[in-house]
Every structure is written in C-alpha cells, then in structure tokens.
Amino acid sequence: MASRRIFSLLSASSSAAALRSSGRFSRWGRGINRFSTAVATEEPITPPVQIDHTQLLINGRFVDGASGKTFPTFDPRTGGVIAHVAEGEAEDIDRAVSAARKAFDEGPWPRMTAYERSCVLLRFADLLERHCSEIAALETWDSGKTYEQAANVEIPMVIRLFRYYAGWADKIHGLTIPVDGLYHVQTLHEPIGVAGQIIPWNFPLLMYGWKVGPALACGNTIVLKTAEQTPLSALYVSKLFYEAGLPPGVLNVVSGFGPTAGAALAGHMDVDKLAFTGSTGTGKIVLGLAAKSNLKPVTLELGGKSPFIVCEDADVDKAVELSHFALFFNQGQCCCAGSRTFVHESIYDEFLEKAKARALNRIVGDPFKKGVEQGPQIDSVQFNKILGYIKSGIEGGATLEAGGKKFGSKGYYIQPTVFSNVHDNMVIAKEEIFGPVQSILKFKDLDEVIQRANATHYGLAAGVFTQNLDTANTLTRALKVGTVWINCFNVFDAAIPFGGKKLSGHGREKGIYSLSNYLQVKAVVTPLKNPAWL
After folding, report:
1. From the candidates 154, 228, 301, 373, which is the catalytic residue?
2. Active site residue 431
C-alpha cells in the first residue's frame, strides 16, 4: 500500500481538487502560487508539534553528551534554529556501544523467542500509527519535505516496514544439508551482534526503518547515528520503541557529526556490523575505517546518477509527468532520482516543451501548506551546491529552459530547473546534483542509449518508459543498475530489495535480502552412528 502512495503523488500533486479532498491542514490551502515569490511575503506556518527529545538515547534513557556540547538543527524554510541537540562524540559512541554489547551478550533481546520479538515490532508499528501526525510534522520541520509526503506516504511506509520485518522475525532459520559420509549437517542463522548504523538526512525515518527493522528482527542490538541536519524524528520514534517493550540498550541513538561520532562508530572495535547510507565519498571513508579497525562487514547505499529513458513509442504526456516525478520528488534530494532524462529524438521537442511547462507549473512553498509540491532544500550547503551546478550547466553550454534561481527571499528554496541540449561530458550530466535540476538529453537508438546510460561510475537505478515489451526486456537486462522501474518510478515496497552497483554501493536493503546483512551462518556437523537413512 505505502509504496503505491508514492506513485499516486503523480496524479495527486497535479490535481488541486485531489489535494483538497483529504481535509488535513485544509486551512493552509489558500494563497498558493505556482513559481511565484509567495514564500518571500508569507510567514512560515507554525508546526503542530512540540520538541520533547533533544538528548542522546543510550541504554534506554535520554542523557546529555559527555562533553555537554549541543548543536543547532535548522528550519530549512527560514534558516532559523529549531532546537539545540546533544552533540555526541567518541566517548558517547563508546557508551552507546557498551550498552548495546551488554544488551546483546547479557540481555533478553536475542534470547527472546522470535515471536516475542515480532510482537515488540508490531506494538512499535501501532505506536507509529497512533503518533503519525506528530512524527510527520517533525520530519517536515527538520527536513523541508512536504507534510503531505511525510504524513501520507513516508510514515505509512515506515509502519509497513516494521510490520513486514515483524513477520520475518519467526521465519529466519537454517538448513539441514545432506553430505557425503555419516554426518548430520545443519546451518544456524545467528544474529551478528552489535550493528552500527548511519542514516542520511533526505529520508530520515525511511532509512531508519530500512536499517533498524531487519537488524532487530534478526535479534541484534544497535547504535544508530542520525544525520546532524535531521536528528529530531529518530529520537522521537526511538522513545516509542521503548514504550513498545524494547529492553534497555537494544537501540541507542547518538546525534552528532560525521568526523567525530560517525568516524568513531565506523572504526569501533566492538561493533560487529556497519550499515551506511549517504554520499559515495563518505562511503569510501566509512569503508576504510571499518577495514582498518576490526574488518567489520559493511553495507553501503550510496549516490546515483540514474537514467530515465523515454522511448519513441511513449505516451509523451505520461512520460513527462513520470520523469518530472522521478527527478523532482523530495526536492530532487533522492539518491535514485532520474537525473539524466534520455528522450528519443523523434519526440524530443514535444517532450521538452511539456517538461518545461510542467516545471513552471510546479507548486513551491512552505511544506506545511496544503497543495505544495516542493519545499526548501535541506540547508545552506546543499542550497549553494545546487546553485553552483546550475551555474556550471549554463557555463558549460546547456540551455536553461526553466528556473535556475533562488525562490523567494528566505530559506533554501530553489526554482524547479530544466536544462536542454545537455551532453554526456557536462558536469550536470556526470555528477550527482541532489536537487531540483532536470537534464534532458537526446538519443537515436537503443544501442546508443544503453552505452550512454551505463557510461557512469554509478549504478543505483534506472527508469524505462515504453509500450514495447521487447524494448523493456532489452533495457532491463542491459542496464548496469540495482533497480529498473518499467513505466513507473520510486516504487519502494517493503519486500523489494534496493541497492546499487559500482560506486552506488554494495549489499541490499529491504526484502528478504536485507536479513543476510544482520545474520552470520554457522555450520554444525555431528557424526551419525548406524543411521536409518542419509
């Protein structure tokens, strides 16, 4: 259900009537302007949530950082401070790892029946459902994503994820293996131990669910580091986990910065497994720290430069809307965004005009306002980085068809931007922009577009828009990526594995494949005497 809600944003976002029908925050539907300077003149909406948790969560209790230091988390709509959050450092990581180690070695969590663990996960999912409005408001306030996206899409997906992994908890088992000789051989699938997890700022709670869900279902304990830009929602929901009956020390949450808290976690000698989602550059650092410490296994979900291929038989109107969604969803801050839109030369001109019109019609404004499609970028760093890429595109010879500038006078809003006449050697066609910038490229035939689509260091995802089954099958097998969406995009069901090739990382999250990230396989061999059968 939840994964379908993302795709449904295609129709909902372009229909004001559909957006008004849900009723929630309906008073905020007035005064919306498309591609205007509305945010420059309107006061930001006061978020309907209170900030209760800003400390570190260690051993089931909220505590200050060892240094006593805090850092601000900012409202992307204004650049103003939301709250000051405890700044975790190496000593706090040590405390959290010690709590997780004790909970694993001596506590009840890995010794519970799998059914008991599943019940805790289910109770947690119920609490998420009960507190959905507050959680969504925190997510929107801290990250700038629209409230409708958070409340109607992402939080329901997180709930579904934990119910999905609750179902897996008592279905994890090994094998009985026939071998040569008089032996009984079986495999045990054991929890790996203390899992270190580092999540990004673009989808804080979704990535929380992707990592925490399978780790707990397998019986592990966790030390999780939040992104310094978005620490609030993970602290809030982790408190709910303890209300659901999670034993002390099983889930520890440390807010802080990558070079201090993140590096300490990645290089910790008593962490048995590491999972990281973020940029490719930081992923390389994390992998190196893990290797230099205790050679802990690492799952990496990193950057992308995903092709979105529109074939000559495409329904242009539908292809324009889907490609728009593939790129601009979540302000373009999505690792698998369809950031290279390849369009067949026979329909390129028509597609370009309609893509430009769609971008100009995109509703930008306060993400708490009903009907808004695009909120601000996460912070000033990302804001300036995106504007730098736009400048590079212009200077590199691409044609700026729409947008290209700051939107409004406050906050980190950027106009939806479209470039045409983009060539493969341009910076905007090679590097991950992570913002609302669509690059539209022209191709002649399948062989050409396959070669060009694969000519990148990344390999996370791809989109294909065609009515021809043979074309779809050819592209599906030829594209060197972890996910191919055919006539859809951003379908993230809990059961569908997700991950990349090349510099987009290794390992898979979600689905049955994610369980192997948090399990060790042990072979047990026992001699048999006078067996009745082998």
Report:
1. 301
2. no
- Structure token pair of residue 36: 């205007």
Amino acid in position 315:
D
> Would the pLDDT of 465 be above 80?
yes
Residue 293 CA: distances (Å) to CA of 274, 287, 433: 12, 10, 32
For residue 388, CA distances in Å to 130, 194, 305, 373, 433 come to: 42, 40, 17, 23, 9
Distance CA 65, CA 88 (A): 5
**From the candidates 218, 311, 334, 335, which is the catalytic residue?**
335
Is 301 part of the annotated catalytic residue set?
yes
Tell me the residue type at 60: G
Distance set, CA 102 to CA 109, 215, 263, 519 (Å) = 11, 16, 22, 19
Give 316-331 pLDDT, tens digit per residue: 999 999 999 999 999 9
Contact partners, residue 401, CB within 8 Å, separation at least 6: 352, 355, 356, 359, 418, 419, 420
Strands (DSSP E) found in 261-339: 273-277, 298-301, 307-310
pLDDT mean over 216-229: 98
Q: What is the mean pLDDT of the chain?
A: 93
Would you give the DSSP letter of residue 508?
-
Predicted pLDDT of residue 42: 76
Q: What's the whole-model pTM score? A: 0.93
